[in-house]
Every structure is written in C-alpha cells, then in structure tokens.
Backbone:
C-alpha cells in the first residue's frame, strides 16, 4: 500500500510540477497581434462554435499566408475550450490574458461577454460581440471597449418586425396581429424581451414571449401553447439544438414553417438540415449571405485549404452561415487593426490602439468589394459612440437544400432604438459611477 | 462513512499538536500565497476553490454529518448570490459584509422550507424532494425580473468588494476577502461538529430511532442542519458570484453545480471538514492541470474539442479509480499518508 501511495504521490506531484512549469504564455516575437479565442468545439453549441471559429481562423490564416500578416504584423491565436459555460470562459480569460499583444476578445457567448466587461475595461482591450451581446454596449460613451458589431439584439428585433410588416403589406397592417417570440432560456435569449414589448405597443400587435429552457431539446408544451394561441407569426430566437427541435415540433403541431421567422442565431444550415422536411420554407434573418461564391471565400479555399491549413474538418461546411460569419468577423477584426495601424504605425498595437481602430471601422460598399466580400455583407460604419455600426440585414429562405435570399438589405429602425439604448446605458453609467466619454477621450489612445 | 468525531486517534507520546496543521495552512494562506506570482492563480484557481470549498463544507454538515442527502446545493447558492445582490442594491449604505450575512440568512430560510420534507422522507426520496428546490429557485429567479433588477438578460453585475472603505478589488484582495470569510465559517463548522449539536447530527444520521429514544430532538436537529448548511452554502454562492465570476445568472447555478458539490464531498470524504477542501481542490485544480498538460503535450495534434473530451474521460476514470482505491475519500488517504510519515519519523527517532 505504501508503495502504491508513494507512487500516487509522486505522480500527482509530477503532474503539478509540469503544469506550473509550463510557461503561462510564450513571449511575443518581433511584430505580432494575438487573438485569444475562447472557442467551443464540444457541448450543445459545438456547431456554432466550430463554424464561427473555423471561419475566423481561416481568415486569419489567409491574411498570414497571402499577405504575410497585416502590413507585416503576423496574426497569432490560440484556443481555449469554454463549452459556452461562463466559468470556463472566465478561466480561459485568466489563462490567455497574460499573453502579450492581445488585439481583441471574441468569446461568442453573451454570458461570458457579460462576465468580461469589467475585466476588459480595466485591461483596455476590445471585446467583440458580433451580432449579439449586451444591447446597451452599443453606446460607446459608456462602454468604450465593447463592440456589438453589425447587429445588436434590438436592431435584429426591429429588422424582423420590419420584415413581417413588409410581408403583410405595410407597418399599419401589423395592428391586431399576434406574434409569438420563442426564446432560448439564457441571457442571450432574454435580451430582447423589452424591445418586443415596446415594438408591440408602438405598432399595435400583441406579442407573447415563451421561454424554452436551455438547451431546448423538449418543446412540446411550448408549441401546444402556440397552437392554442394561433399567432400569425412565430419569431424563433433559438440557439443550437433548440432550432431544429422547434421546426420539427412546429410541423408536428401543424404550424406552417413559412410563418416562422428565425433570428440571427437560428439561421444556419446546422439549424435546418437536422429538421429535414420540417424546415422547408422557413425564413431567417442574416447579416451575411451564405455560399462560397464570394471572392474572399474562393481565396480561402485556394490559399488556405489548398495548403492543407483549413480549419473546418467537413469541407462541405465552407460557405455555410456560421463559417461566413466567422470570416466576416475576421474581416472586421483585421480591418480594425489595419485602420489603427494607419494612425499608430505598422507595428504591434496595444489594446487601446486597436479599440481606436474599431471606433473608426468604416467600410463602405466599395471597400467591402475590394476585400472580396461584395454581397457577403453590406457595410459597417462604427463611430466612437455607435459601436454597432449600422449593419444591414437581409432575409433568406430555406428551400430544403440551400438558403435563398428573399429580401433586399433592410435597415433596422435605429432612430427608434437609440433613445432606449441610451436610457439603459446611462442608467448603467450612473449605477457604476462611469463618466460619459467625450469624442476627445475617444481620440486619445494609451500605449 | 467516517466516524471522525468518535474515533479520535489515540494520543501517542510523540505527536504534532492538533492545532499545528490548521495554523500552518493559515500561515501559508495569509502569509505566503498573497506574495506569490500572477493573477491567474488567484482569479482562476484559489478564489473558485475557496467558494466551492465553503459550499462543500456546508453540504458536508448536512449530508456527511446529519445524513440528509441534498441535491439543492446550487439553488441555495443562487439564493445567496441573488439575495446579497438585492440587499446591497436596495438598502443604501448597508455594508457589503452585512449584505452577505443577510444573504446567508435568506438561504437558511429557504433551506428550512425545503428541509421540511426531510421530516418525513429519507435517503433517495429526500434527494428527489430537494431537487424541487433546484428547479423552483431557478424558475423563480428567471420568472420574476425583480430579482435581477429587471435587467433584460437576467444577468447581474456584482458590486465592487469593499468593507468599511477598504477596497478588496484586485486578484489578491478578492482572494483575501474570500479566504477570511471561508476561514471564519469553517472554524464555526469545525467547532459545531464537536458540540452537542454536532453530535446530535451524527446521532440522527446513524440511527434516527435510537437518537429519538435517547432524547435527541430529531425534528429540530434536522431543520437546524438544513438551516446552518444552507447559510454556509448561501454565503458560498455570494462569494462565487461577487469574488469569482463578478457576474451572475440563474443558469450558472444549475443541477450540474449541485452534483459537482456532492461529488466534492464524496471524493473528499464525508463527515470531514478537511475533506471538503481536498475534494474541492481535486475538482477545481485537476481539470485545469489536465487541460494544461494536455494542450502542452498534444496541443499540436488535436483541436481543442477533442482535447477537452479526452480530459473529461481521464477525469472521470480517475475519479472512479480514486473511489475504488479509497472509498473514504481523499481525507482518509491523506491521514494514512501522514500517519505513515509520522510512524517512520518515530522509527528513525527510536533507532
């Protein structure tokens, strides 16, 4: 026994010694910009995680291989598995933050993003929550380092209601209609509850918001309620496995798929393919089109996958919705660095300098085309106090095999949303004793 | 199950005094650790370790000492976290430490309410009824926006840690804050285990009928166990939210967390205060070590998903091996190791 226990003791202490001897972070070489990726490749949301981070990494690889980095500054990254859980995300943050030359955080999880807001604000490093995140962080006066790029949850809701209005023949036709919002039981899912209430009041439709507990693989009772209420439309605000289950259960309860409108996290191939037949006719909002016909994707296929460095294991997923979102996210991160380099020089930038780059991230349609992303996404126009950047949305319909775009690029009702966002952000500022930034504060970037 | 209180080791002529161990640990915790290295150790290892240890000490009082199996631990943690947040938010000028204490009492009240079925139910039946606490609390916190100050996403930000004007922000500050609370409550639990009340707990656990016959007030004892245990778990929840995550959402306190804490006391050793700390150390630190070693050795070969899966398999297998090799938990292993060490020390001294 004592031999055994000695052995055990020795093994344990060896493991401990090894783990602490591993340097916490490799030191930065001459010029590099590091992306800590709090990714998730296992767990209920792995489809989103592998696609998004796959696309992001593919784009970073493209920049490194094709251009030798951003103006000679090499892009580096490593991954830390979060499984979409907040405490794992926090542990990953603590582990990765000691790495020098961090450009920006991209956790792709509202819960993790919330936990990081105080921390990254202290570190002065941008936190990117593309197409999701905390809505009031759109207000750059209060949240200098948080960027819900392209589309915050309120804009998304407004875009969906505008689309439904256009299908009904005008905003005034919404009066008396009934809409059910089926949302994921997580911070992400709940974020839009107040805005749907407000839109319902404004346009005179009734809204009923029903929660599906995480992860959402059982929805019989929710859809029975929907059947009883006979709504005109169901907005699906799902995530991961919840989406195909919703579509299948809708079919079982006899609700037509073309009257279900998916939000921006219910719009991928991984959401509809498992639902099979039940998904035919289903419509969903998106900020970036799917498909691999865009020049930037062709270059990724040629340069990155051609060199055997592609990140997606299943090549059929190239050009899928999540993969393309990851690529768009890569474009936005890289362009922010490029814009900041124009001001601060072609070298490794500090987090605060990259923040300056994001606050000047203005890509018009010509610039987007030059980047090989014409029609992949519309444009973005981030300023020091608007951290969303007025992204446009479009709607796509699933025909059983692929997504087809069924609308123009639609602008959400930003003028309606801004006062609500400011009300919430200034309340946060008051609660946390934050002084509102001025343009002059935003212009200065510390080293 | 260990009978730690009853079988004290017979005093031998050559013995390290009983207080030496705790004093040494405290000296290291206060005197050495704060001066050690980077923030990672505090923020990602020590602070969550302390919060989970305290929750495990609380559960151990209930399950290990008093024999009442509970699966509602995470719910009581959630009550603690949300209550501390609300006391702090709604009563201006209330010192943070008082908010945390009141949060503990709130958790105790909820604990008593869900402890009532224990008067009629035992074993697995009681475990199932405490599951109700798990689901009810999570439902209530999600359903009523008031608890999270009507924050749209239901996530609350923790206030800055400060007591009487002294700020405990920063990694070391948060660690010391958590450490002090954990030490105080652990000392209380340790003392409690050696009082009449503690002995009543054990009597109820070992044979309820016999306990009743010799005059132990069974009802009162069980409810007291629920109350004290929930108090500590509630405070642990507040620490988890305020000192570690600094944000909190109801989904963070799900059934997985309850199981995690139950595993901590089973692996660490039932009816042992130290066992809670050993178990928490294993559950918190071991996955991190595995993930570090794994990504260091195999990081180039596999992507992080495969790596994570294999870590889970290794961890699960190790826990099974541990339990087969040492069903009384890490604390028994530790005792044998130290006893062996002392014996060999004695032998060298004699020779």
Residues:
């Amino acid at each position: 026994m004592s031999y055994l226990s000695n052995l055990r003791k020795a093994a344990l202490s060896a493991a401990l010694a090894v783990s602490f001897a591993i340097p916490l972070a490799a030191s930065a070489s001459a010029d590099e910009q590091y992306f800590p990726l709090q990714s998730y490749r296992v767990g209920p949301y792995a489809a989103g995680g592998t696609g998004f981070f796959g696309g992001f990494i593919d784009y970073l690889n493209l920049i490194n291989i094709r251009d030798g980095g951003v103006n000679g500054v090499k892009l580096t990254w490593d991954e830390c598995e979060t499984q979409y859980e907040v405490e794992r995300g926090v542990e990953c943050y603590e582990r990765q933050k000691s790495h020098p030359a961090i450009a920006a955080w991209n956790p792709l999880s509202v819960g993790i993003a919330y936990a990081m807001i105080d921390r990254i604000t202290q570190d002065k490093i941008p936190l990117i929550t593309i197409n999701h995140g905390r809505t009031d962080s759109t207000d750059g006066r209060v949240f200098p380092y948080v960027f819900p790029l392209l589309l915050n949850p309120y804009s998304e809701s407004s875009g969906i209601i505008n689309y439904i209005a256009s299908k009904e023949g005008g905003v005034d036709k919404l009066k008396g209609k009934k809409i059910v919002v089926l949302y994921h039981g997580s911070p992400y899912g709940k974020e839009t509850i107040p805005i749907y209430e407000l839109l319902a009041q404004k346009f005179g439709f009734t809204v009923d918001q029903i929660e599906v507990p995480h992860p959402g693989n059982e929805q019989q009772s929710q859809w029975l309620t929907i059947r009883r209420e006979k709504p005109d439309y169901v907005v699906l605000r799902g995530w991961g496995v919840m989406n195909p289950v919703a579509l299948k259960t809708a079919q079982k309860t006899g609700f037509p798929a073309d009257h279900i409108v998916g939000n921006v996290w219910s719009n991928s191939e991984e959401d509809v393919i498992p639902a099979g037949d039940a998904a035919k006719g289903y419509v969903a909002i998106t900020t970036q089109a799917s498909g691999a016909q865009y020049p930037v994707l062709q270059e990724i296929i040629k340069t990155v996958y051609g060199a055997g460095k592609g990140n997606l294991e299943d090549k059929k997923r190239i050009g899928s919705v999540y993969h393309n979102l990851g690529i768009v996210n890569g474009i936005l991160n890289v362009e922010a660095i490029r814009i900041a380099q124009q001001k601060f020089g072609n070298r490794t930038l500090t987090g605060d300098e990259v923040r300056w780059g994001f606050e000047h991230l203005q890509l018009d349609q010509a610039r987007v085309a030059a980047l090989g992303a014409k029609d992949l996404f519309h444009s973005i126009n981030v300023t020091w106090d608007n951290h969303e950047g007025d992204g446009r949305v479009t709607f796509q319909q699933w025909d059983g095999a692929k997504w087809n775009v069924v609308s123009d690029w639609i602008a959400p009702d930003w003028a309606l949303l801004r006062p609500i966002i400011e009300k919430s952000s200034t309340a946060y500022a008051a609660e946390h004793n934050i002084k509102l930034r001025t343009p002059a504060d935003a212009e200065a970037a510390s080293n | 199950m260990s009978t730690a209180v009853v079988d004290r080791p017979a005093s031998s002529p050559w013995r390290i005094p009983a207080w030496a161990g705790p004093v040494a640990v405290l000296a290291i915790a206060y005197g050495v650790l704060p001066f050690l290295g980077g923030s990672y150790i505090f923020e990602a290892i020590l602070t969550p370790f302390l919060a989970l240890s305290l929750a495990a000490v609380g559960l151990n009082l209930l399950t290990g000492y008093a024999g009442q199996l509970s699966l509602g631990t995470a719910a009581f943690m959630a009550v603690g976290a949300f209550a501390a947040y609300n006391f702090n938010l709604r009563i201006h000028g209330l010192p943070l430490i008082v908010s945390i204490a009141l949060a503990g009492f709130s958790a105790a009240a909820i604990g008593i309410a869900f402890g009532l079925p224990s008067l009629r139910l035992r074993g697995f039946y009681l475990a199932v009824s405490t599951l109700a606490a798990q689901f009810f609390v999570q439902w209530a916190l999600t359903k009523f926006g008031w608890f999270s100050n009507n924050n749209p996403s239901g996530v609350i930000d923790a206030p800055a840690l400060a007591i009487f004007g002294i700020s405990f922000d920063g990694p070391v500050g948060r660690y010391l804050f958590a450490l002090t609370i954990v030490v105080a409550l652990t000392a209380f639990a340790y003392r409690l285990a050696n009082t009449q009340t503690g002995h009543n707990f054990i009597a109820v656990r070992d044979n309820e009928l016999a306990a009743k016959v010799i005059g132990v007030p069974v009802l009162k004892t069980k409810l007291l166990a629920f109350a004290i245990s929930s108090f500590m778990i509630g405070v642990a929840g507040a620490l988890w939210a305020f000192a570690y995550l600094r944000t909190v959402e109801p989904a963070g306190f799900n059934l997985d967390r309850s199981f995690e804490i139950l595993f901590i006391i089973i692996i660490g050793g039932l009816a042992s205060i130290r066992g809670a700390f050993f178990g928490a150390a294993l559950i918190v630190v071991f996955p991190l070590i595995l993930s570090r070693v794994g990504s260091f050795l195999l990081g180039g070969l596999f992507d992080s998903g495969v790596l994570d899966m294999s870590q889970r398999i290794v961890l699960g297998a190790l826990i099974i091996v541990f339990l087969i090799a040492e069903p009384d938990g890490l604390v028994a292993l530790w005792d044998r190791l130290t006893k062996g060490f002392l014996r060999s020390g004695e032998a060298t001294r004699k020779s």
Remarks:
- Chain B touches chain A through 37 residues (CB under 8 Å).
- The CA atoms of residues 5 and 194 of chain B lie 7 Å apart.
- Confidence is low (pLDDT under 50) at residues 1-9 of chain B.
